[in-house]
Amino acid sequence: MDEFNGTEINFHCMYIPFCDARDCDRELYDSPVDCPDCNRGMVALHFTILILMAIFITMGNLGIILVIKRNKIFHNSFNMFKCSLAFADLLVGVLVVPSGAYETASIMMRSFDPTALNRTDYLIGKDVAMIRPDSMCDRIYQEDIGGPGMFLSMISVLSVMASIFHLVLLSIDRFLAVWCPIKYNQRKALKDKCAISMIIFVWLVSITLSVVIPMSLGQRHFIHGLSPAMIFTLKTSNPSTGIFYATFGLGLPYLALLGLNTATGSIILIKHRNLVRRSSLSPSLNSGGRRKDEVKATITILVMIVVFTLSTLPAMVAVTFYNGTEHKKKGDATIRSIIYSTLILLLVSNSAWNFIIYSWRNDNFRKALKNLFTRKQQRQRAIIRWKQLKCSVLLLSEEKRRRKKLIKLTEASNSYSSEKM
Questions:
Q1: Regarding beta strands 130-131 and 123-124, do their DSSP bridges make them parallel or antiparallel, or are they unpaired?
Q2: How far from the centroid of its chain's Cα atoms is residue 221's Cα?
Q3: Structure confidence by residue, pLDDT tens digits, 221-260
Q4: How many other C-beta atoms lie within 10 A of the C-beta of residue 192?
Q5: CA 372 to chain centre
Q6: Gap between the terminal Cα atoms of the chain
Q7: Which of 61, 95, 98, 390 is least surrounded, with the fewest CB atoms within 10 Å of its CB?
Q8: In a domain, 252, yes or no
Q9: Could you please report the per-residue DSSP string of 294-338?
Q10: CA dist., res. 126 & res. 123, Å (int)
Q11: Cα angle vertex 332, ends 160, 126, to 5°?
Q12: How many structural domains is the chain composed of?
């Protein structure tokens, strides 16, 4: 072995499942994907899953944004929060998943560098794991310390932070809708300007926690890296930093969600009991329908919270406690890497669940989404545009006739006045 002349780094080498090329003989094989321990079929399946997830996340969240934008029935504070949440999820489908898959493909398919065999600048890991130059670990490390790796890691964290804070906004909206329904329907309980200000505040807080603080503290407190699931992730390397993020990024928002949804459910239950007591009075159809919509919207928020928790919490625990260099046996490391990758993919799938929940729980959204892609809706839009164009042409022609008539009257008046003189 060559003389060691490296530096200690805060880095964990996590390889791709079914492709453990850490000990690949670079003199016999051209690239990591050619190594005998790399199953090309399983790697191709992993790439296919990532591509399908990116397409579904992108198309689903674009559908949410377009439906809300084009239908006036959805122009309220509740759907404004939904639209902003869809944009946060859209970042994952457009940037995080495709970029992570592309970076992983470039790492695995790029040919080995023959000159790296004679270099002595070895890298040593946090757990005394030696990283050979131009190996899979060295390539992942070089990708991680670059600008794109750091940026994509922050975007993935930004999406998670924005999601949980938007769930708080949606819970606030539902609480106000149940607590003071008359003012809410008149848009006095939560005005549009106030909703926009709340959205801006949430994005500022999310950007501060996911971008500003990690960039200011640097690698002394954060590790950004390419995970086995081909997704860039960000984890804290300092216990105090981890406690700070667990408190302000997860703990307090979850307490707010618990308190708001408990209060909302209690108000709905109290209103229902009051109606039961007044059995002699039959409730109006409108109030009954409104209460049904309130209950349905509240249950939708609860479903979103449960799905968000089940998809993000296990992955966050795995990112916090799992270290790929701790497992020397290939069999044990392979199983743990597969579990870790599955949890990361489950985390990414959180960006697609909201579209499924809206389509399942909201009849109006489902109909509007169907009309968005049908020819009937396109024909109706074309007819409306044609009528608008026809009206504008008729108005122009009427204006021309009026002007001509005015000119003739003016000329006749002038000629009459001249003859009289």
A1: antiparallel
A2: 25
A3: 777 666 666 676 777 777 788 888 888 888 899 899 989 9
A4: 12
A5: 22
A6: 119
A7: 390
A8: yes
A9: HHHHHHHHHHHHHHHHHHHHHHHHHHHH--GGG--SHHHHHHHHH
A10: 10
A11: 65
A12: 2
